[in-house]
Structures are given as C-alpha cells and as structure tokens.
C-alpha cells in the first residue's frame, strides 16, 4: 500500500511541477488558445473544437455547431488530471474498473520514437525545429490514452495546460501512421496567408514553432480501437500567433 501511495505522490509532484510552468506561461501571455480533437473510425471523422478564453471560460463546437446553446462554460483555474480509475463526463464522476483487455503499447520506446519521427518529418517540411521526447509528458499522455481506452470515452484531459492532440481509429485507420497523417492532412484546409483555417488545430499544433517537447501515449480498447495521445510543451494554437509559428513548406 505504501509503495502505491509513493507512486501516486510522485505522479502528483511531477504533474504539479509541469502544470505550474504551463500556468505561468498561460498567465503571462493572457491569450486565447484553441484545441481540436478528432476521432476517425474506419474513415468516418468527427471533430470537436474547444476554445479556452483568458477569463476562464470555454466554448465548444462539434462538427461546426456550438454546443450548450452557445453558452460559455466556466472551468476551474487548475485541476489535476483524472486518473484511470475515475471518469469525468459532464462534471459527474463515476468509478470505472480498468478493463483487463485494455493494453498500452508494449514496444514503448520504438513506438514513441516512430511517432516522434513522423511528427518531426512534418515539422521539417514546415521550417521549424524538431521536438524532443519528454518522459514526464509521455507519462501523462499514456495515462490519458489508458483512460480513454478503458472508459470508451473520447475527450481532452480536463484543464490540460499542455497542447494535446488525440485520435482514435480501428483496423488500418488505427495505425500511428494513419492517425498522425490524419492530423497533418488538415494542412489542405489551412490558409498560410490568413493564418487560419477551419478544423486545422491538429496540423497547426504539429508544426507549431514554439513547441519544444513531446509526450506520446497509445492504448488499445477492448473493441480493438487504438487511441493515440500526444502532448506538447509549450502548447500551440494561440489566437493571434499563428503566422509567427505556422509556416508553409520550404
């Protein structure tokens, strides 16, 4: 029991250190940030765009339609990530036993290196420096991938202070190559001259110049679907900063 408590305390300590750094960054900039999440199941795409405002409110659109009647929802200034044993859905918590058939990647080092290479190949094409793998960020990404796979949910980590891309697919659509490619393919809808584009948040986070560190997590759900989570520090997708961070191919 004491060993488990020590492990949880270590997790909390690492999260608080990283969250404090991101909170300082966000407070200093006082800007609005957008996040885009996408599920791809056998080629069928669903897109959710969340906008975090400086006053602590968030707005969400699902496939271009604003949720909750267009009303902004208040979010807490800071909250630790939910662990795999607790699922938060619409602010209501319920305990869920992690599925014994949910599997994290066993070839973690090779898998993370592959995702890093795929993303850095995209960044190189768009004239920005490569990302570096970070163990703490990868632990967070893996924790959230496990949570999504075991619960069957599909949502960003609540109040995440880091950039985050998530995707889910099955069969040939569930390979890391397909999932990362689905993020990058949003480039086709992005206007470099305007510094904007509908539903392009995954692409812009992939190639965001100021992002430096990458965390990677992958898990397989009981139904065989693969969940991929990547976290970025510093986060990207700040409104008003796109043209200084997202560049066309060289």
Automatic annotation (TrEMBL):
Superkingdom is Eukaryota
Which SUPFAM superfamilies does the record match to this protein? PR-1-like (SSF55797)
GO cellular component terms, semicolon-separated: extracellular region
Coiled-coil ranges per UniProt: none
Q: Which residues cross the membrane?
A: none
Q: Which stretches make up the SCP domain?
A: 110-240
Known PROSITE patterns for this protein? CRISP_1
This chain's protein is named SCP domain-containing protein
Q: Which organism is it from?
A: Mesorhabditis belari
Q: What is the lineage of its organism?
A: Eukaryota, Metazoa, Ecdysozoa, Nematoda, Chromadorea
């Amino acid at each position: 029991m004491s060993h488990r408590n020590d492990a949880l305390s270590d997790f909390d300590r690492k999260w608080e250190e990283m969250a404090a750094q991101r909170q300082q960054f966000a407070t200093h900039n006082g800007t609005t940030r957008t996040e885009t999440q996408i599920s791809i199941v056998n080629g069928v795409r669903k897109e959710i765009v969340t906008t975090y405002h400086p006053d602590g409110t968030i707005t969400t659109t699902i496939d271009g339609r604003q949720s909750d009647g267009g009303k902004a929802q208040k979010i807490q200034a800071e909250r630790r990530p939910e662990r795999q044993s607790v699922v938060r859905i619409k602010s209501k918590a319920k305990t869920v036993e992690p599925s014994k058939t949910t599997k994290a990647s066993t070839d973690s080092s090779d898998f993370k290196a592959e995702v890093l290479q795929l993303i850095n190949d995209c960044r190189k094409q768009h004239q920005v420096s490569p990302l570096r793998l970070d163990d703490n960020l990868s632990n967070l990404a893996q924790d959230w991938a496990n949570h999504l796979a075991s619960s069957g949910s599909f949502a960003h980590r609540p109040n995440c202070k880091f950039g985050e891309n998530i995707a889910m697919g099955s069969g040939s659509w569930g390979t890391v190559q397909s999932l990362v490619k689905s993020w990058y393919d949003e480039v086709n809808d992005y206007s470099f001259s305007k510094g904007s584009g509908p539903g392009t948040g995954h692409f812009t986070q992939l190639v965001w110049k100021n992002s430096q560190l990458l965390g990677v997590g992958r898990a397989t759900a009981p139904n065989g679907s693969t969940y991929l989570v990547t976290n970025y520090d510093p986060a990207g997708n700040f409104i008003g900063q796109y043209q200084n961070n997202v560049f066309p191919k060289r």
